[in-house]
């Protein structure tokens, strides 16, 4: 899927639908590995999309099989590409020093998971949680920090599936402008977490065991982000999403060759294909099923003579929509469903594409923090034994505080840009 997806971007002779078919083939092979809730979610989303598609076709709408099969295939290629970054993580060795403790460690861990997560996605959370859980079970205060600091990345980073999805669904949107308004919200999230730590609102903060983050470990996110942004600045042909997908393997291959030559590259590629990629079954199920839902809704709305609940998509409507993200997430509905439903409706009003993408990204970050079934909280629950329901409940006040700031940024965008 990844190779054909890149090839179809570079050469028009390669049909993109081939990559979409391969994505579904991969999901078929990985289906037995999925959990029960993941299967139910995928089947439910797909079934709803098929019903909407059938209704639209019955009303005279046209069928685009490429959109049905591959609405989110580009997002999945990007996720598969950045998964390659995990092979650069050195294995934990015996005899490593004990994990550092205290408030300063809490703050360094917060910055670390956010900085790494902004580029290598949920792999950063897994890398850090694996290290923290090696010597003792992951504690609630550690799980809360990882969940909050990581989900705040979704407010601005195009390396995150939610932001990439928002940009992909809004042709003409500016990633840099979206980042300009989304990044302050992530800074506010980190400031809020810092205040939690310094004011004693984190349980047993003096004994908090954190990840040993060092400045020299930040080279990878900096290099990759720089390469992608430089590529975006010198070419108008490719989107940020496409550049991430194409350039990440180049950066990783160069780094592996520099670290250990061809033997290291060969071992890492085997690990990537045999161990890392098969862990993507959950993402395949979620995004492919959501793509079917989105394609079905687009077909249904096209047959409904352009009906939309929005007269215009302004800051007020966007603020109400963010409440919708939060409420649906509390009921375990993933933000990708809201994005798939709302974007086709909102686009009927010809909104500012960057404003729409910014709203989707903010809703994704706020919603994933309070959703016990989001990828972030589900990984913490199923892989590390932390109560994902308790983490989600504890994040409600955190997201509610950030909601107020998000609304302010939306109104500021409306006043200054639109």
Characterization of the model:
The chain has 418 residues and is mostly helical. It has one domain. Helix content is 72%, strand content 0%. The protein is built from 19 helices and no strands. The radius of gyration is 21 Å and the shape is globular. The mean pLDDT is 86.
Summarize this entry quickly.
The protein is an all-alpha fold and 418 residues long.
Average pLDDT rating: 86
Q: Percent of residues in beta strands?
A: under 5%
Tally of strands: 0
Shape: globular
Radius of gyration: 21 Å
N-to-C order of helices and strands: HHHHHHHHHHHHHHHHHHH
> Oligomer, anyone?
single chain
Helix residue percentage:
over 70%
How far is the first residue's CA from the last residue's CA? 38 Å
Class by SSE composition: mainly alpha
Give the biggest beta sheet. Answer: none
The number of helical segments is 19
- Unreliable spans are none
Number of domains: 1
């Amino acid at each position: 899927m990844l190779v054909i997806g890149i090839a179809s971007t570079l050469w028009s002779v390669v049909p993109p639908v081939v990559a979409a078919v391969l994505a579904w083939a991969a999901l078929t092979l990985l289906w037995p590995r999925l959990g029960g809730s993941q299967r139910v979610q995928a089947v439910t989303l797909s079934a709803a999309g098929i019903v909407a598609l059938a209704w639209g076709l019955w009303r005279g709408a046209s069928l685009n099989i490429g959109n049905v099969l591959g609405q989110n295939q580009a997002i999945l290629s990007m996720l598969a590409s950045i998964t390659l970054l995990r092979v650069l993580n050195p294995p934990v060795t015996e005899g490593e020093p004990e994990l550092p403790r205290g408030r300063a460690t809490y703050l360094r861990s917060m910055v670390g998971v956010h900085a790494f997560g902004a580029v290598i996605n949920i792999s950063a959370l897994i890398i850090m949680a694996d290290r923290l859980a090696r010597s003792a079970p992951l504690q609630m205060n550690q799980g809360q920090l990882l969940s909050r600091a990581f989900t705040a990345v979704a407010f601005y980073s195009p390396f995150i599936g939610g932001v990439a999805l928002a940009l992909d669904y809004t042709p003409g949107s500016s990633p840099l402008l979206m980042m300009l308004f989304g990044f302050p919200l992530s800074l506010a999230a980190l400031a809020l977490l810092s205040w939690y730590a310094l004011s004693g609102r984190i349980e047993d903060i003096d004994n908090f065991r954190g990840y040993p983050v060092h400045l020299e470990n930040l080279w990878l996110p900096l290099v990759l982000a720089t390469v992608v942004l430089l590529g975006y600045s010198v070419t108008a042909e490719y989107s940020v999403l496409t550049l991430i997908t194409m350039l990440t393997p180049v950066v990783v291959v160069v780094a592996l060759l520099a670290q250990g030559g061809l033997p290291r590259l060969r071992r890492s590629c085997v690990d990537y294909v045999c161990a890392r990629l098969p862990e993507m079954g959950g993402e395949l199920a979620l995004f492919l099923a959501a793509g079917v839902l989105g394609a079905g809704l687009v077909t249904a709305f096209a047959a409904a003579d352009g009906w939309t609940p929005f007269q215009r998509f302004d800051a007020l409507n966007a603020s109400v929509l963010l409440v919708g993200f939060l409420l649906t997430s509390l009921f375990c509905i993933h933000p990708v469903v809201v994005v798939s439903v709302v974007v086709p409706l909102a686009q009927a009003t010809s909104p500012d594409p960057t404003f729409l993408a910014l709203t989707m990204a903010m809703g994704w970050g706020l919603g994933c923090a309070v959703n016990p079934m989001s990828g972030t909280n589900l990984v913490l629950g199923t892989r590390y034994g932390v109560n994902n329901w308790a983490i989600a409940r504890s994040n409600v006040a955190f997201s509610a505080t950030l909601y107020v700031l998000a609304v302010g940024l939306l109104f500021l965008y409306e006043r200054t840009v639109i």
